[in-house]
Amino acid sequence: MRRILRDTCIFAALMILTVFAFSIAGVGFTEEIKLVFELFGLAFILSVVNYVFDEITSLPILAGYLVKYLVIVGVVIVFGFIAGWFYPSNFWMAFIYVGVVAVIVYALDSVKTEKDIEEINEMLKRSKNETVEFRPLIKRTGWKVLLVLLIAMTALCASSVAGYCLLAGNDPGPGIQFGNYCLYGIAVSSPAALFLMITLVIYLTVYFARKKSLKR
Amino acid sequence: MRVEQRQVKDQPLTVIIEYPEYDRTVDNLIRKIKNMSISFTGRSDGKTVSIDISDIYYIENVERKVFLYSRKDVYRYDGSMADIEGAISDTDLVRISRTCFMNTSHLREIIQIKNSHLEAVLDNDEKLIVSRKYLKDIKKIFRRKLL
Q1: Predicted complex ipTM
Q2: Residue ranges covered by each domain of chain B
């Protein structure tokens, strides 16, 4: 499944690049085409930063993600100012955009690491002909990480909804501008909350299915 | 399993394995025999010693010096980590961080400690820090072992 998703993303990226490259010949270098190429440029820079960071550091998962988050936010802000995406009044939004992506990646990484460790320990025991023990839910950390992040994203989404209702609902004047920020908050936190919830449900479903099959 | 041995003069040491079907046991046996022929030369207390790969628990690079760790002893290795990496393909040794190789045949378990670091606990109670990005290489070794 992971391979299919990865291949889909690569294929989609190649299609977008090809279509937009042909469009340059037809309609010229429009703002939309410029934005797409800027996004690809940013993705490339971030991939290089991520690779170099992983090569030179060996921090624990959480500390690694916190430092990486700050570094990537810095890169996005600098790139955003150069590309004209950000202004002094709204550059802080990079913290939210990158933060939401970081939360999702951290959650997936935590779950994957836990799964890898469990798989290695199981294979180790099987190679020594020892009995493989099934770890109960209370001893697992993946679902706890997912739950904490899901609560955080739901709270962010709920506060954005509440803020929008309070600011934009009654005030047609300056409140609208702040109401738009709340809409951005809803736009980034609600898909993240949904994604985390789906991942948590899949995690628990797989856990109980494995538990049931082992009992048999 | 039947074990036969015979002396054949003027010939190098030769091991012939006969099997009815190639299975996990045969694969493990062949790998163990192959591993026996790989050794590293280390120095300890001024003496030069040859250490079988199966006796090595882990190999660590500390301040650009490479050390081989057996169950109880430590030896200085004159080569580089790149030399070791070239010699250990298809053995039980695997890279677990930028500065360390671990022998998976002496691994007891991998645990995630509270500050989210990963630790490999060896048979001699030694603990090594494992980098997450090398977990897939460790998995590959065990998958090969369980073939």
Answers
A1: 0.80
A2: 24-146
Q: Is B112 close to A58, i.e. CB distance below 8 A?
A: no
Q: How many CB atoms lie within 10 A of CB A31?
A: 7
H/E stretch holding A84? none
Chain A contact for B146, CB < 8 A? yes
Q: Is the per-residue pLDDT at A175 higher than 60?
A: no
pLDDT tens track for A120-143: 998 998 888 887 778 888 888 889
| Chain B contact for A62 (CB, 8 A cutoff) | yes
Q: How many CA atoms lie within 13 A of A25 on its CB side?
A: 4
In CATH, the architecture of B24-146 is: Beta Barrel (2.40)
Read off the pLDDT of residues A55-80 as tens digits, 9 standing for 90 and up: 787 777 788 888 989 999 999 999 98
B121 contact A CB<8A? no
- Asked whether A73 and A95 are in contact (CB, 8 A), the reply is yes
Q: What is the pLDDT of residues B101-122, one digit of tens each?
A: 999 989 999 998 876 688 999 9
Put simply, the answer to whether B145 touches A109 (Cβ < 8 Å) is: no
The pairing of strands B118-122 and B39-44 is unpaired
The Cα of A50 is separated from the nearest Cα of chain B by a number of Å equal to 13
Cα separation, A179 vs A165, in Å, equals: 8
Q: Do you know the residue count of chain A?
A: 216
Q: How far is A114 from chain B (nearest CA, A)?
A: 8
Note whether B95 and B88 are within 8 A (CB).
Answer: no
CB atoms A124 and B116 under 8 Å: no
* Distance (Å, whole) CA A145 – CA A140: 10
CB B51 within 8 A of CB B42: yes
